[in-house]
Amino acid sequence: MQVKAISRALILGLCFSLCSCGHDFAFYIHEGDSLKEKTKFNEASQNYQLALKEARKKKSKDELLKATLRLAQLRLIESNQEQAATLFAEAAELAAAVPSAGPACKASCLNEIAKLHLLAGRKDEGLEKLKESLQVLSEAQMEDSAAAAETSSLLGSFYAESGQYKLADKYLRLAVAAYQAHPEDYGSYSRTLSALANNCRQSGKEDEALEFDQKAKTISVSGLSSVTGKAYAKFNQ
Question: Can you tell me the distance from the alpha carbon of 5 to that of 33, in angstroms, rounded to the nearest whole number?
């Protein structure tokens, strides 16, 4: 009886040890990414939340940023715009404290918030966030970064839709110049060239419009031919 009791105690102790043994941050991020790819969004969210918990235990701002961005992206996929905006705002604040992320990540987060405002018809709030994003990049002397290309493109499109073609032309040309240094995002580059072409037409510059249209098509075709299967993901670190 005594031997059985000891054996049972050992088994229970082993079971408790196994059950109380959790996984690390990297595991939860990997699981979350895998589940998201399988469109199992609830399970992915749970894993990202566990990753956040691990990051808080370690007081790692870098890991907190990564997990927060993963959750923000997931909320976008789920069309939960309010939570996505809140998470991107948290990520923007964290980015300032993470040297490997810095201004580019903060600006990209602000751009995402701006897009959510614009989608909801809050034009003033969207414009304010885009200007804040551009200011962050300007102070960091990153006007030719991929984040700056995106910000300028969004600003150009905003002004074009508002009928402010001169301002639109300014920012779309700045975006095109920045995208030339980042051809890997050929889709955005091509779309920006097309937007610039359309804006030129609105301003009566038909020759330039044709030139930019042709370049947009060339960029799109050459970009598609060079795809390797790896998605361009500005937030997945």
Answer: 44
Cα–Cα distance for residue pair 12/156, rounded to 1 Å: 65
Q: How close are the terminal C-alpha atoms of the chain, in Å?
A: 56
Q: Provide DSSP, 211-222.
A: HHHHHHHHHHHH
Mean pLDDT across 86-106: 92
pLDDT, tens only, 70-89: 999 999 999 999 999 999 99
Radius of gyration of the chain (CA): 23
Q: Pick from 48, 141, 151: which is nearest to 91 by CA? A: 48
The DSSP result for 45-91, as a single string, is HHHHHHHHHHHHHHT-HHHHHHHHHHHHHHHHHTT-HHHHHHHHHHH
Q: For residue 112, which amino acid is it?
A: E
Q: What is the residue whose two structure tokens read 């002397």?
A: 141
Q: What tokens were used for 158?
A: 């905003």
How do residues 116-168 score in pLDDT, each as one tens digit? Answer: 999 999 999 999 999 999 999 999 999 889 999 999 999 999 999 999 999 99
pLDDT of residue 23: 85
Q: How confident is the model at residue 226 (pLDDT cuts 50, 70, 90)?
A: very low
CB-based contact 142:103 (threshold 8 Å)? yes
Q: Which residue has the higher pLDDT, 19 or 47?
A: 47
Handedness of CA 210, 212, 214, 220 (dihedral sign): negative
Q: Residue type at 208?
A: E
